[in-house]
Amino acid sequence: MTDEIFSAYLTRRKAASDAFVAGDVAPLHEVSTASDPATILGPAGTLVQGAESVNATNAEGSARFTGAERNDLETIHGGEEGDLAWWVGVQRSVVSVEGQDEPVPMDLRVTELYRREDGAWKLFHRHADPLRES
């Protein structure tokens, strides 16, 4: 069961995702950790470790997007227990990417982990890879 503070955080996290695919990484940095450990297992099979590297990678990734026709987060399950929380779902987006003439569909399987830092929830791990419909 999620508490009101974590639910409010997830609302901010969704807004950060919307901003990210519009080319603005600042809201994602606000909801992400600046402390190690931090990781991204990216859709292209990459592994990024360390908060500084994760935040730099997010900035580089966001800079490639120029907008989104759609960016939906479908929750499979999530919750929080103590100072740890998680969200598992599917991100379904249609994004405009620098260098592409047409919008690109981007459906990802996503697992995110969060921890409470100084009373605030922060994203410290994201695993996203392409969704294959079954």
UniProtKB/TrEMBL annotation:
InterPro entries associated with the record:
DUF4440, NTF2-like_dom_sf
What is this protein called in UniProt?
Nuclear transport factor 2 family protein
| Source organism, top-level taxon | Bacteria
Pfam families from the xrefs? Answer: DUF4440
Q: Where is the DUF4440 domain?
A: 18-123
